[in-house]
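Journal club side-thread
Mid-discussion, someone asked how the predicted structure for our own chain would compare to the paper's figures. Pasting it here so we can look after the session.
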Amino acid sequence: MSDFLSNFSGENYNKTRQEKNELKDKTVQQEQKKKTRSEKGPTDKSERAEKQQDISSDVAIGPQNSPDNAPETMKQSEVTPDSVSKAEHPEEIIYTKKRTKKKKYEPKKETAKVSEPVAIDQSRNTEEVIETDPTYRNKKIRKYIYIGLGSLVTVALLYFGYYQMTHVQVPDFEGKELSEVREWTAENGVKLQVEQKYDFDKEANLIIHQTVKNKKIQKGKELTVDASLGADPEEAVALPDFKPMKLKDAKSWINEHKADNLAIIEEYSDKVPAGDYLKFEITNKDVKFDTYKRKDKAKLYFSKGKEVFEKDISMPDFAGKPKEEATEWAKKNEITLNVEEADSDTVENGKVISQSIGKDTKVAKKDTLSITASTGKALVVPDFSQFTAEEAESKANGLQVQVKQLFNDEIPYGRFISQSVEVGKKYTEKDEKPVIQVVYSFGKPYMKDLRDNTLEGDLQKIFYEEYQSKGANITYQVYYVDSTVTKGTVVKMSNYNEFIPINSVIQIGISKGNLKPEENKPADKEE
């Protein structure tokens, strides 16, 4: 290493540079000689060897080309044409070795054999060495073949990838739901065209047919499917006699005939066994049993049997509580509630007096509970026969009383005849209270003498106020007589100053006033 560095220091560097320039000049001269000789023709081998010897003797050994650094093969082997060319161009020795190392695929040359001399292109740079590879042409052909095959494979792969990206495999949707097709087309970018048809054998929204099945379709293209609408609703359906049918038989018939608008309703019944027919109703009154179509709505009722509930509800104590509390509890627990009312001197109006089921008793839904609710303190109608007409109003216990006296042929004066409300009837605060009519007797009617001091015009008032308004059906009939008494005056009566029956008719004579007093005879007055 020190020897190598000494060549580039001081005088040695100038010396080495000078030697190198001299070597270069010799090399140029030798190349010109070779060119001249090559035009004349090749010399024999001995001449060639001499030339090589001359060239090798003229090569200056530098640091890199010193005998110590030379490869063993060059030391041991004889002088070859290759070595001659390398000696002629010392700068290219390293270049050739580098190129040789890079071409690993070339077979290792044996040192014993003498290779052909390397042809040097004089037109190129004198410092550049060109080596000819005899397998280059075949390698180039293979290279183009590989490139072509790779291109074909690449194009095929690209087309295959493009086809896979732009096409999708269409499954078999027949018999499946329309929603499944819609979901698939949305996910895969395929347009969907749906045509709906009535099909008795296919349920609604099931696929009947599709244009593409188990094949690929390009994305963005249209897939047409036929979807079922179910059975035709306009088709007439002959209804059977449902009465002898059981529930399961009716359901089977509905499924078989696709009568989906015929609804089965089950209800509890205490009389009809479970599963038996109850009734049949068609919703539209214009539709008859014989003209029923599949679209028409109808209801078919079957029994669920008697409803049985577990007794798991504890009965509260409602005594003294508002009846509304009992009503709300019964509604919440589906208990049938019967409310009866009664007056009470101790329980306020609207509160519960008693209940039919005791406290903490377990009951079930639909059981019946009866309660008695208070109407407050009642007003009782007394027995007015125990009182006189003057005492009646004061003994009414807060009730309104109207006292009357009427004529009666059998009951003596002042005695009780009747009352409009029965004895002992009770009236509560919420009840509307009537006016009680209490009647006492005036006894038999007494007919007064109305002659000579009563005018015909006063008869109506007298008979109504004195007799008819007091229960006596006493009427009168008038007739007219010749008399000196002022015209229109009562001069005669069939009964007067005596007791008469309450259904009597009194004959009354009215004066015409057409006679003078002197013409009157005493007998007329007596008459």
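Post-session note: Confidence is low (pLDDT under 50) at residues 40-122, 523-527.
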